[in-house]
Write a structure and sequence with these properties.
Layout (H helix, E strand, L loop, with lengths): L18 E2 L9 H4 L6 H10 L1 E4 L5 H15 L10 E3 L6 E5 L6 H7 L2 H11 L3 E11 L7 E5 H9 L6 E7 L11 E2 L6 E2 L11 H4 L10 H11 L11 E5 L3 E4 L8 E10 L49
Antiparallel strand pairs: 1-9, 2-10, 3-4, 4-5, 5-12, 6-11, 7-10, 7-12, 8-11
Length: 319
């Protein structure tokens, strides 16, 4: 495995104070490289706030097939036994399914939809691949939340991601509203790297994917950032999309409403930012949680089939 200098030290005995990020947010430079679906105003907003929200980006018809797949997965007792499927701590319901794009053609094709992939090229200024994909499902009344964290802090420490040259696309498969635990973000927090305390335990992923306690900022740091930047919780119907920078602090609350909250996540990473040895000193997490080794850049879909609003994407594989 390759080694790299640790420019973002975290989870060490003497915790450094938060410091300004050392890398750009938008990597494309010059008028040609910045060409893409996002306007200059949107790129500035992303650079300043760390996220963008697109209401009704996809049609509800496009999303229905993914919801049908998820319901099939929830009934699949054999699938639930796999490590890549995380079960809620106190129920038999699915909390997350990782490497979701490897389970079906439908999800795989969506990672290469030009509407998403062209944004990834424009923001990251390079070819990209999927570092991680997952569905987070919060069933009504029982779905539990996710603690405050920076994805990059985890991916840097536990996966060996050198830089925050990466972002997540969150696709709403069901309505996200104020009651069912929508994604919360601290706008502008992506411009600060927040080291956290506590050494990373062995096989930390087995517990952290259910309930993360290591890699969580202290309340005083969260207070200062929220007092300065406020909070945002993008809400909208199925088919809406949030893209958020890998270092922005985010969380979500328990779902105490009767309505499920189902979100699909694709993590686009630059091919120039592939994982090296984890900086926490532990063995790498499983491949389903973090793509390692040689990667193939994602290529745009060759056909417009399934890439127009209102047209369903290709049918899923059977597993």
């Amino acid at each position: 495995m390759r080694e790299a200098q640790d420019r973002y030290p975290t989870r060490i005995e003497r915790r450094p104070k938060p410091f300004e990020r050392l890398d750009p947010v938008v990597y494309s430079q010059g008028s040609t490289q910045r060409d893409g679906p996002l306007s200059e105003a949107q790129l500035r907003d992303y650079d300043d706030q760390g996220f963008l929200f697109f209401k009704s980006f996809f049609s509800p018809e496009e999303m229905q097939g993914f919801v049908d797949d998820l319901q099939d997965y929830d009934r699949d007792t054999e699938l639930k036994k796999k490590d890549q499927v995380i079960i809620e701590p106190h129920t038999d319901e699915i909390r997350s399914i990782f490497a979701i794009h490897e389970l079906s053609r439908r999800f795989d094709r969506l990672t290469r939809d030009p509407r998403l992939l062209d944004m990834a090229h424009q923001i990251l200024g390079s070819e990209v691949y999927i570092h991680q994909s997952r569905i987070n499902d919060k069933p009504g009344f029982t779905g539990t939340g996710f603690n405050w964290h920076s994805d990059f802090e985890t991916w840097h420490s536990e996966d060996g991601m050198p830089q925050p040259r990466c972002f997540s696309v969150s696709i709403l498969l069901s309505e996200n509203n104020q009651f069912n635990g929508p994604l919360m973000l601290i706008p502008g927090s992506h411009r600060w790297f927040v080291p956290t305390g506590g050494q990373t335990p062995q096989e930390h992923w087995k517990s952290s994917l259910k309930n993360q306690t290591v890699g969580v900022p202290t309340p005083d740091v969260l207070h200062r950032l929220i007092d300065k930047h406020g909070l945002a919780a993008p809400q909208g119907p199925a088919g809406s999309v949030v893209i958020f920078e890998s270092n922005v602090l985010h969380a979500s609350a328990n779902n105490l409403s009767p309505w499920p909250r189902r979100n699909l996540f694709f993590v686009y990473n630059s091919v120039a930012n592939q994982a090296v040895d984890p900086f926490c000193g532990q063995p790498p997490r499983p491949e389903f949680a973090a793509t390692r080794g040689e990667v193939e850049p994602l290529r745009r879909l060759q056909s417009n089939a399934g890439a127009q609003q209102g047209q369903p994407l290709a049918a899923s594989f059977k597993h």
